[in-house]
Specification:
Blueprint: H1 9-34, H2 36-41, H3 58-79, H4 86-108, H5 114-126, H6 132-162
Helix pairs in contact: 1-5, 3-4, 3-6, 5-6
Length: 164
Amino acid sequence: MLINGSLTLNEFIGYVVSQVLGAIVGAGILFAVGGDFFIESGLGTNGFGELSAINISVVGAFIAEVVLTFVFVFAICGVTSKEKFSSEAGLVIGGVLTLVHLLGLPLTGTSVNPARSLGAALISAAFGCNNGAAALSQVWLFIIAPLIGGALAAVVYKALASEK
């Protein structure tokens, strides 16, 4: 939204801070409510290598997260670009997010949201959840790759939309 001019820099900073704080609080609530289940499951953290269901490499995880985030953000750009799509926006965004998660869960646990990944990793490490420290050491990938995928989607969408 910053790249496409929908947010000012100050609004973007506020959005990022709100997302990160919300993710930390949300992960904390899940931990408090789920207790032992989340200690064993790792609180939905992301990972590569031994933290991946298929033992995906760091390069594979990076590519997967860039591509999955690209698809998700590109769909968001498309469905929110015109008022006439507003009645379908929720279904399209939810459907694409579902597809992205179904494809990405066995690969990396699916991030596509750096704040969500950071919140889960921080709370998981702080409260000794299974693989919490390892997830925190890998969270850099789940911050950088989605930011790249999202930025690429915004730039490509903007270029394609301006051609029309």
